[in-house]
């Protein structure tokens, strides 16, 4: 028979995650309690909260690391089936997509402006993606577009696609960007070669490449700022 202290229903009402959220507010809940609400139940030997504490412990209690876990990785924990894993991944993806307040930038004045637009789109991704920001003559943002998605260590981008997007939107300039899931901000030789290739094409088409940003969870590297564009 299940130990009563492991059964959330036997807890004092104010200590149960759902009831605690209703009575004390969402900020009163720990990360494990919020996750427990998502999965609903634990195992015969472990409450939902304790199971979530175990999952968080495996990530050093780092939500950013948890957000990178796949469904298969979550299902390695006893008590986490496909449905629960999907609930966790979906909730964290919604959180990742949430745009920071006050970051509605309509004009690029520096690399930080570009980073603030791009970071919410690429933060926490377990794979590389390539994005572009299309600009008008006043460096106003026309559109931000994902051009390709790849693996953990790289993604392939076709310059023809980049400039087709630019021409279709009558862009006067373009900012390139991709993320490094590893957290390494240093551009690789492949990054530099690709940038030169796209930059040369931009000169011919009179759509200059103004910068190429490498995005990680800890910051960014601007090729324009560092003089390697």
UniProtKB/TrEMBL annotation:
PROSITE patterns reported for this sequence: MPN (PS50249), UPF0758 (PS01302)
Database matches in InterPro entries: MPN (IPR037518), RadC_JAB (IPR025657), RuvA_2-like (IPR010994), UPF0758 (IPR001405), UPF0758_CS (IPR020891), UPF0758_N (IPR046778)
Keyword Hydrolase: yes
Domain called MPN: residue spans: 107-229
Keyword NAD: no
Pfam families: RadC (PF04002), UPF0758_N (PF20582)
Gene3D superfamilies: Cytidine Deaminase, domain 2
GO annotation terms (biological process): proteolysis
Similarity annotation: Belongs to the UPF0758 family.
Protein name per its UniProtKB record: DNA repair protein RadC
Origin species: Marinigracilibium pacificum
Gene, per the UniProt record: radC
